[in-house]
Design goal:
Two copies of one chain form a homodimer.
Chain A (H helix, E strand, L loop, with lengths): L6 H25 L6 H8 L3 H4 L6 H26 L5 H18 L1 H8 L13 H20 L13 H11 L7 H20 L10 H16 L8
Helix pairs in contact in A: 1-2, 4-5, 4-6, 4-7, 5-6, 5-7, 5-9, 5-10, 9-10
The structure holds a DNA duplex (30 and 30 nucleotides).
DNA sequence: ACACAGACGAGAGCACCGCTCTTGCTTTGT
DNA sequence: ACAAAGCAAGAGCGGTGCTCTCGTCTGTGT
């Protein structure tokens, strides 16, 4: 009965690994990454602290696994908003995806901090996290791509010293879009997350009160920057 | 009781406090906030670890002091760029201040992470940090204000649901600017630091190669968003 | 069928951390 | 001059990440 790769032992390993990750994620969501302790996880799981090291070689490895999960969770949220908005105007889709990302960030501040805050140790972004990290960006790009297909994208030219870079970016990430929009896409991606990060990390305290309306307005501005006509008719 | 306490005791206290902060800042710059340990600082200062608690009640208080210093250092840099650019075109001044902020961030990544990355413990932003934190924002606003005085600011209207908020923001932070630009100022401030944060934290790895040209282009876009005519003639 | 290599769990232990408490000594203000 | 307050040092508590060793269990090849 070896339907699973190597018997029941391997299955137990998968289950325990998942249990550790689940408990760690719970603690992460409650207290943040700095307070996440292997010993505490082991304790509530009823195992010796040393046993955890059979599953995750170090605390950083556990954290890396959680980082990938967080990226995937956020990416999934963005993709869901993307799908749900098929057929709508490009500006409205843009807003929908941006608001989905913001909503996720506000609902999972510690996870957000884990992936977009300061890198926890010195710094590290193992190559394994890259594909998961890219999903959010691609969801945003998809809105732009669809708008371009529908002829609703206003492409602004790019300065001469960025032309080569824009071409490279476009070839790497958006082969079916005009190269000139590639830098704008990347810039807007970073700016959007800057906006969200400021809100999540409390930088808007006593500065922005009407968060929803403010975000909506700012996101309209970002849409304009990439060449979309914003949903807001104002 | 006496504002300048006569005696060598008070003077020694100031000197030791400064020495602790200096050593802590050195370690922060080298290793980051997570690795900053009171014991290690005490060790290299040749004092018992418990003695440090006479000067900083807790690790977080030391960190808070460093946060204020970092805000001030960054604010000073921005203000210096602002002063150095008096008389230049608004677009050029904008670029100059933005590049000064970016330059500081790239030169002091750990300090940058301390103030704009994820809040180190659970969260914390003692009220004492607020004035220092505001300096950067005001440097940016000054460019906009001067442009407005010179009649070089294009003010875009604000949606109806933001008018009250815009008026409140303007009254609080930019009383001599049209209310409609206030939300744009705040949004652009967050977006600029998002841009810089992504670069500092390595999110642009393998995505943006020509960092300088890219940043310059993005900053031109931000200038446009607040209503400035960018320096780039393209 | 059985023995053996490998995976596994538990415990002890190391070096480090933030922080507190107590004990003396020195400076300060009256 | 003397009491009060500030200060440095040491010991100690509970916590951390991580390693090592030592029994136990298990999956597998002969």
């Amino acid at each position: 009965m070896t339907s699973t790769p190597h018997g029941a032992r391997a299955r137990a390993r998968i289950e325990i690994t998942a249990a550790i990750k689940e408990e760690a994620r719970r603690r992460l969501a409650e207290q943040g990454a700095a307070e996440l302790s292997l010993r505490a996880v082991a304790r509530t799981l009823g195992m010796a602290s040393s046993a955890i090291y059979r599953y995750f070689p170090s605390r950083d490895d556990l954290l890396t696994a959680l980082i990938i999960d967080a990226y995937d969770s956020l990416g999934e949220t963005a993709e869901a908003a993307l799908k749900a908005s098929v057929g709508a105007l490009a500006g409205e889709r843009w807003t929908a995806v941006c608001e989905a990302i913001r909503g996720w960030a506000l609902a999972h501040p510690h996870e957000y901090a884990l992936i977009y805050g300061s890198p926890v140790p010195g710094y590290a972004a193992p190559a394994t996290t890259v594909p998961a990290a890219a999903r959010v960006g691609f969801a945003l790009i998809d809105v732009v791509r669809d708008a371009h297909r529908a002829g609703e994208l206003d492409v602004a030219p790019v300065p001469a010293d960025l032309e080569a870079e824009a071409a490279r970016m476009a070839a790497d990430f958006v082969p079916d879009l005009p190269p000139a929009v590639a830098p704008a896409c990347v810039a807007v991606w970073a700016q959007l997350l800057g906006l969200i990060g400021f809100e999540v990390f409390g930088q808007f305290t006593r500065i922005v009160e009407e968060r929803d309306a403010f975000f909506r307005h700012a996101v309209d501005g970002l849409a304009r920057t990439v060449g979309l006509r914003p949903a807001d008719a104002s």
